[in-house]
Predict the 3D structure of the following.
Amino acid sequence: MAVPADGKPSGLTDEMDEAVHSMSAIHARFLYSVVVFDDRRLWERDGATSMSAWLAPRYGLSKRTARSTVRVARALKRLPRIEQAYREGRLSWDQLQPLTRYATPETDALLARKAPSMRPAALVREAKRHERMRRRDAEEAYRLRSFAMWPDPELPVMYVEGALPAEQGEAVRRVLVKRMEEMGREERLAGVPYEVRMADAFVEVMTSEQTGRAAPATIVVHAQAEVIAGAEPAAGPVLAETEDGQRLASETVRRLACDGRILWLTESDGRPAGIGRQGRAVPGAMVRALRFRDQGCRFPGCERTTWVQAHHVIHWANEGPTTMDNLVLLCSTHHRMIHEGGWQVRGHPSKDLRFYDPADRQVGIRALPDPEEAPGAFP
């Protein structure tokens, strides 16, 4: 760049202005793509649990930045004038984030004119003022809270009824919806009603350990231990069922046995011959070490730190040890994907852990250009 005699770079300010405008336009296009990608739930094909969980590992974003990106992108769908101001470079990202927390379609045009001249700190304060208004309104409903359960005198059911202030109700709803999603999407795809899946989530949340770690299962195995070892015959009947005769997929049995207490029931000529117990639950001290090391589910981009389960990379039935070098934490959704969904996890939990979809495609990474072939952006 040419430098004039007075020592001031010629045209440098104009060049930076043009770069900022270009970045805003490109980023606005990126936010639009995020909304389209999210609306179509295309992140599911890579095993992600949300749009932010997909964005974070793919583009090296923090969880906070990924969540903020998705939130702002969704907000801009109903704020066309503010979106235009950002696209044209009249609003910065630091202005846009707090602005989209309180802007509405009714105030869209007004704020698109006013916000460019406001400092980010002022926009943050305004957003907080709106949040405090909502909290004051919610306090009035606090005294109306109630919760009750009672049994039906004739049917084997329990009724639940309650009323919660909006913010508490939303907090409970979010926990239940999150747990419902963690339980898998097979039920949703199969058309199981939303209310039924929420009931299942409610029961699981209320009956799980207070630590957020799902209570280890007790599996009753009738005869064929080959199911646990993954050595069941390809044809013919296979015994894999619950105590009351509920049929289970072999893969489901192996998933439950990853960190479960196994109750063995051997049979001879159709009659029980003996009962024995063999503990396979991961010890509490090892679970704490796993939580410290993994900080939650290890699937790329998954943000879940609760409701996680210990998974044996090499199943213990195949002589895989219950050690830190063979254990990894997975949420229930991704644990089910590994066992029932045909996904695979390879590598060492403390070094190079990789996940592959059923087509043997590694997920959670993106193809980058060869540094020697990519054009340089800087002199």
In short: The chain has 14 helices and nine strands.
